[in-house]
C-alpha cells in the first residue's frame, strides 16, 4: 500500500480539470505537429518553452509529455496515406504503411498503429511506474564523481550512437560544450567567453538556443527542401483492423513494446532507433520476409508500437538521474529548470506532484490518443495542404514573441536569429543539432561535478575508477563505446571468410570436415568395399557359403 499511495496521489493531480485539459491539449497538439512535416516534437516543445514558464510545473511537463508521445502517432497518418513522414520516427512506417494504403487497407494500417501505440505506451508506462522509484532510490547515493561520469556518458553515447556520422556528431557536441562554458565560472563566478558583453554575463540562454536551432532553423531548412507538388487526396475506409490482421500482428506489437522500452532507456535512443530495430527484428523473424515492403501489417505494427514505448521510457533517465537521453528530453530538462526544479534522484521526494503527476498523466493521455486518433484523420490530412507561405510566418512570429516574454530581452531575439541561421547551416551540411543541445545541457553538469570530484580526490583522476558506482559506470561507458567497433570487426572477419564450410588445405592425417565420426577417410567402414552399393545389391566379393561360377568360355 505504501507504493500505491504516491501513485494514487498522482492521479489526484491529473484528474483536476485544468490538468486534464493540458493532457488533452498536449495530445492534440502533438498529433497536429506530427502530421505537419518540418515541425515535429523538438521544434514545437522549443517554441512552447516560454508558455510553460507561466503555468505550474506539473501542468507544464504534462503538456510537453503529451506533445511528445502524441507526435509519435501523428506522423503515422501522413506516412500511411501520403508516404510523407510527418516525424522522423515514422519514416519506417512509410515502407509498408503506404503499400497497405495503395491496396485499400489504409484503415487497417491506421487502426493497428493506434492500437499498437496504445499498448506500447501503456506497457512502457507500467515499466516507468515500477522501475523509476527503484532507480531514484538507488541513485540517491550518487555524488559528484558519479554525476560527472553519467554526464560524460550521456554526451559521448549520444554523440556516437544518436546520429549517422560520428565525426559530425562529436563536432556538434564539442560546440555545445563550448557554448555551455560561456558565462560565469560555476565555482568562482568569474566571467568567461563573454567578450565584454553584459548580455552574455549569465551565459547563453537555453530557450533562445533551443528555439533558434530547432524552431527557426527547422523552418528555414524545410522552406527550402519541402516538395511543392500537389499531394493526392487519400481516402480511408474500414478503420479498424480485422481479427486476422490482429492475429497476424499481435506478436509484433508485443515485441515492439519490449524493444521500444529498452531502447528508450539508452542515450541516443528514442523513436527513430527503436522503430528501425523493431522493424528489422520482425523482418528477420518472419518466415516470409519477402512480404515486408509490400504491405505487411507487422511492418506497421512493430515500429509504431516501439516508437511510442520509447517515447515513454526515455523519461526514466531524465526523472530519476537527471540525464536527458535525446533532444526532446533535453528540452523538457530545460523546462524543469525554468520552473526551478532540478530533475534527478531527489525529484520523486521533493516534488512528488510533478513526478507522479507526469507519470499518471501518460495513462490518461494514451487513452485520449486512442480515442482521437481515428475520428480526426480527415482533419489531419487537410493540414498537410496548408501552404508554407502561410504557416512559416505565423511560427516565426510566435517564436520571437515567445522568447521575448521569458526575459523581456531583445538580445535574446537576436540570439534566436543567430542560432536559427546556425541550425539551418548545420542541417544543410549534414550536422544534427541534437548532440549540440544535449552537450549544452549536460556540459554545465559535467564541469561542476568534475571540478568538485577533483577537489574530493585531491587532483587524482583515478578516484573515478576506484569508487564502486562511478567505476562501474565508467566501465559500462567504455564497453558501450567499444562494442560497435567489435561488432564491425566481427562482420569484417565473417565477410573475409571463405564461403565453403571447410577451409582448403586440410592438414595431412586429419579427417575431412564432412567425414562422419568413426568413418575412415574414404567414407567406408573397415572391411567394406569402397565401391558404392545400392540397396539390395550383392557385393562383388564372394559371399559366405557361395562359390562364384566363372563365365563360360566361347
TrEMBL record:
Domain of life: Bacteria
Transmembrane segments: 20-49, 61-82, 109-136, 148-164, 170-188, 200-223, 258-281, 318-341, 361-381, 410-426, 433-450, 470-490
Sorted UniProt keywords: Membrane, Transmembrane, Transmembrane helix
InterPro entries: DUF112_TM (IPR002823)
Protein name: Tripartite tricarboxylate transporter permease
Keyword Transcription regulation (UniProt): no
Region of interest: Disordered: 498-554
Residue stretches making up the DUF112 domain: 20-438
Keyword Translocase annotated: no
